Amino acid sequence: MIYQLLTRNKGLMSVLGKGIKSKKGYTNLKPFRELKVSYIPKERLSLMTNYEITNDYKNIKNSSYLAGIYFNELIYKFIPHHEPLQNIFSLYKDQMIYMAETTDSIDLIFFNFEVLFLKEIGYEITFGNINKNLINNNKNYFYDYEFGFKEVKQNIDSKNSITGKDLICYLKNNFNSIKNIKTFRIIIKNIFRRLNGGTKIKSYDLF
After folding, report:
1. Most buried residue among 120, 140, 156, 167 by CB atoms closer than 10 A?
2. What pLDDT shows up at residue 152?
3. Helix 106-120 and helix 181-195: axis angle, to 10°?
């Protein structure tokens, strides 16, 4: 079996697990477990020699496991192999802990990770020339993918627009109070799609 590992000091890396044939070995190495891994470095594919489970996040609900598949696809597509990215590792670990403890909706679970992941890879949602202190609760704002948020002034811009009230909640990181998270997530979906050369993120549409 070839495993993709997200590591603290070496980023994303591939290892070959030889002899993973028993049901126990296969189950122990399922996704979303924190492991301490020993391996022999190889030019093409390192060889995993031993592993120890340090946290298996047993309390994560099945619906959140589906979210984890989506997070894995984002990481695999948008971060380079063999580049230390400790912030991404910490973000992923914090997300596993959060999913094991939270009672938040699945959309909010998705949204929390998406926002922070975009920030870490340098493509966070921006506000362009809008004065953040002058955002009006009663106005709507649309996202221009070249310049950031702009005030809606004509009907053509009203599709997938965000209320000023929700925008202020976003600015304050008060995600639980955002009423229309789905529209925010459509904006994020389109950002990922643009970064991916127009290709869809398969697991986004699946869930």
Report:
1. 167
2. 92
3. 40
